[in-house]
Amino acid sequence: MATDDHATAARDEIAAGRAVLGIELGSTRIKAVLISSDGTPLAVGGHAWENQFVDRMWTYSLDSVWTGLQESVAALAADVQQQYGIPLATVRALGVSAMMHGYLAFDADGELLVPFRTWRNTTTGPAAAELSELFGYNIPLRWSIAHLYQAILDDEPHVPQIASLTTLAGYVHRRLTGRSVLGVGDASGVFPVDTATKDYDARMVAQFDELVAARRPGLHLTDLLPEVLVAGQEAGRLTAEGAALLDPTGTLQPGAPLCPPEGDAGTGMVATNAVAPRTGNVSVGTSIFAMVVLERPLEQVHHELDLVTTPAGDLVAMVHCNNGASELGAWAEVFGRFAAALGHPTGADEVFGALLREALDGEADGGGLLAYNYLSGEPITGLDEGRPLVVRTPDSRLTLANFVRTQVYGAFGTLSLGMRVLAGEKVELDTLYAHGGMFRTAGVAQRLLAAAVGAPVAVARTASEGGPWGIAALAAYLETAGEEDLPTFLSTRLFGDSEVDVVAPDPQDVAGYGVFLERYSAGLAIEQAAVEAV
């Protein structure tokens, strides 16, 4: 049990019910974070989970959602008990975030009609293409509206029974509060949002209703979708049923207000203080995406770019890649097992860190190696399925350093192609903030990402906590939302004294990465052939 002055202050804040709870359901981990009034993480808890490929669909069961949530909260409560010697009974506010997009359709009794279809599925090509043409607005394959329209086009039997449609964060929030709402950032990945009204785009809603009228008479989109709220608006309170769902022991009490449920893109922006124009952030996990807050609308529609919003409703260009660090993680497991076979068992974090540091000794272009991290399809490069690959020519230099550098470059390859489109729109970016586990190893992925995007990359003290910290910050914002806007709240109250490490692009890395990216773009034909052949 901690006994210093800081721990005493933290214990008093927790005991008084002044700490704030954030929970995020990420693609590989459900994590709960308790923060103080100034944003300091006080305790954490987590639960590992994985998506399943069932009937050619990527999914998670709803039972696993609640098992994971309960284990995360239990681990958090145990951390509080161990550090401060008190139970976690009340909080000032809480919030829930999760992976964006996907398809969760329910009937009038609240029963799930088909298994949760996650953002990772790429089966909505015809629907996304038709809607993009109709709206004059890019509708990515993973957006909820694309999933709904594809189900209508395919005449799936469950469609007539749909009474509500939401995201994973929206579903959990509804069970905790009884309210069907979404934060505007999460909502903007369900259906296009009008940044003037901070609501679903009325013109496009009418177009959609007219489009489906013949196939599904009486289907009105606004009857199905959750209400849209912006950061700072109270989105309900934790009910007794909701408290029991999070903590079956009955220790956690109901009554705390919740902020609007958000997607992981929005919480990533908050966690890196990248919610103002000319700022952006990159989140690296199972997927990888960049968010750039725009000063003006884009001039053209680009299939490589989603247009979403910050949690406050400001326009954001999003470069979303389905494949992130999973393949690099798989190789780290291989090397970890090799170390164990030699009689030197090593923890996963140590293996990962050692490999990343080795990458700094690699040649700037990766020594002629080529790597694709495509475990699943990648819409930006036009691939419906993925095949992880390592390819090299006979005259390439296969060293551990070149191999790992190429794996990191490969994780950033598709992102770079999308960022080039933004550069073509003359979007200017002062700093890109990065977060995710890859950045825990200081100075490696950060440096190589700076080369990949051609902009300074910053990592702040909250990067290791990431999205759960971001949704906790949005919950904390409920108390002062009437006094200040979200960027001011973050900059003055939570990031005022934070340490930020900024790395500018190294010219040699930039040149080497440029050579790699040319090789990467040309080699996409190899990836396509692998999908067709294997």
UniProtKB/TrEMBL annotation:
The keyword Lipid metabolism does not apply. It comes from the Bacteria. InterPro entries: ATPase_NBD, FGGY_C, FGGY_Carb_Kinase, FGGY_N. One of its GO terms (molecular function) is kinase activity. GO terms for biological process: D-xylose metabolic process. It holds the Pfam family FGGY_N. Residues 20-245 form the Carbohydrate kinase FGGY N-terminal domain. Residues 281-477 form the Carbohydrate kinase FGGY C-terminal domain. Keywords: Carbohydrate metabolism, Kinase, Transferase, Xylose metabolism. Belongs to the FGGY kinase family. PANTHER family: SUGAR KINASE, XYLULOSE KINASE. This is ATPase.
